[in-house]
Amino acid sequence: MSDERPVLGVIGSGAGGVEQLRAELVEPAQQRGWNVVLTLTPTAASWLEESGELVKLEAAVELPVRVQPRMPDEKSPHPPVACYVVAPASANTVAKLALGLMDNQALTTVCEAIGGQVVPVVVFPRVNAAHARQPAWQRHIDALRAAGVHLVYGDDVWPLAEPRQAPPGRPLPWTAILAAADRAVTSANAR
Ligand SMILES: Cc1cc2nc3c(=O)[nH]c(=O)nc-3n(C[C@H](O)[C@H](O)[C@H](O)COP(=O)(O)O)c2cc1C
Fold first, then answer.
1. What spacing in Å lies between the alpha carbon of 116 and ligand 1's midpoint?
2. pLDDT tens, 86-145?
3. At how many degrees (to 10) do helices 42-51 and 53-60 cross?
4. Cβ(163)–Cβ(132) under 8 Å?
5. Distance from the alpha carbon of residue 14 to the mean position of ligand 1, in angstroms
6. Which of 32, 33, 38, 102 has its CA 20 to 30 A from that of 21?
7. Residues enclosing ligand 1, CB less than 6 A?
């Protein structure tokens, strides 16, 4: 029997909250009917490996977790996706997506989707107020918006805290992130 579930491409980077990815994004998305495929930046993968969470993520998803690019003669282990969700997106990953830099597997797939203008992309920048005052930051946000990226960003969803001043254990806006993916797919299907 063919698998008719839509595929959600989740991308995790090296930012706070990535340790909650399985419980707060992967499993809830699966419960809503998504087949989740997961790609991590090398930084996120090393953190999650160290904490023991990578093994649990690998068990939670059905296909291999991608970190390294495939070899030229290998097939991609992931099917085409209906939507990408980059969460949490570090300031570094946001900047690279805006500039089109693709020096890891996560950036390669998402940059291609942004340029392809077919598969919707949701990004949650998990940054602090100092990251946002970096002089290039607003240009990165504007570039992603202009390219049609669905940003979960702003005081209404995630007020930015000064470095090391956020309350400990502050939850990421996981519900808003998943809702943005649902909306992005609905509007892409209506085109
Ligand atoms: C404990 C720790 C927490 C971090 N949290 C964040 C964060 O929440 N947001 C962010 O933009 N960068 C954060 N960083 C910095 C990023 O991990 C760093 O810029 C890294 O190069 C990101 O790589 P990636 O975007 O390829 O995953 C953190 C670093 C450490 C060591």
1. 27
2. 999 999 999 999 999 999 999 999 999 999 999 999 999 999 999 999 999 999 999 999
3. 110
4. no
5. 4
6. 102
7. 13-16, 41, 43-44, 90-93, 126-127, 131
